[in-house]
Design goal:
Arc Repressor Mutant, subunit A; 3 domains; two-stranded antiparallel ribbon; 8 helices; 4 strands; 4% strand; elongated
């Protein structure tokens, strides 16, 4: 837990928290100025900050990446930006929770059954349960079967069909199938 050191406004992180890491343990006024520069210029790189404060980039890296500095930076960003840093998903989730809580309050005192039904349907639909019976979707289900055949197998099938139903009826059936097929999918018999 960060604590104040002897300097006013100084934040200290105990060395035992990260004894092997180089860096600062106490936030000095210079470190606060570095923090303010980072917050004021979010796109600035460490080399530019180091040059401005007349230190080497490696020392600036030790300062900025120290536990003490990171704690203060996180606090400052949270104070400045708060909810703005939340992702869209986090915001929508929070809004959904607040909306549902408010809806639950209102539904308790609602007497109009059509409104209650509307709320129930809307809730079930948004959860993916509307239009299901025993967990299975209702409505029509269309199954499409696609078969592929090489030219030889297709020619054998056509000959068999012509022998069974007669050449005239077979030609009519083949022509009907060709008319229903997408363009270029089925060659006419004898043209393949």
């Amino acid at each position: 837990m960060p604590k104040l050191d002897h300097q006013p406004g100084a934040l200290e992180v105990p060395r035992e928290a990260a004894p092997h890491l180089p860096g600062i343990r106490i936030m000095s006024p210079t470190h606060d100025a570095i923090l303010e520069a980072i917050l004021a210029n979010p796109g600035i790189n460490l080399g530019e900050i180091a040059a401005h404060f007349h230190v080497t980039p490696s020392w600036m890296s030790c300062i900025v990446h120290s536990d003490c500095f990171q704690v203060r930076l996180a606090e400052a960003r949270n104070e400045l930006y708060g909810d703005l840093r939340l992702t869209v998903k986090d915001r929508v989730t929070a809004l959904a929770h607040r909306s549902l809580a408010r809806l639950a309050e209102k539904i308790e005192v609602e007497n109009d059954m059509s409104r209650i039904t509307d709320v129930a349907e809307m809730t079930l639909k948004s959860m993916g349960f509307q239009g299901q019976t025993n967990g299975r979707p209702t409505g029509s289900i269309t199954q499409n079967n696609f078969f592929t055949a090489d030219k030889e197998a297709l020619a054998v099938a056509r000959r068999s069909m012509m022998r069974i139903v007669g050449e005239g009826e077979a030609r009519d059936a083949i022509d009907d199938a060709i008319d229903l097929a997408p363009a270029g999918d089925s060659p006419r018999p004898g043209n393949s």
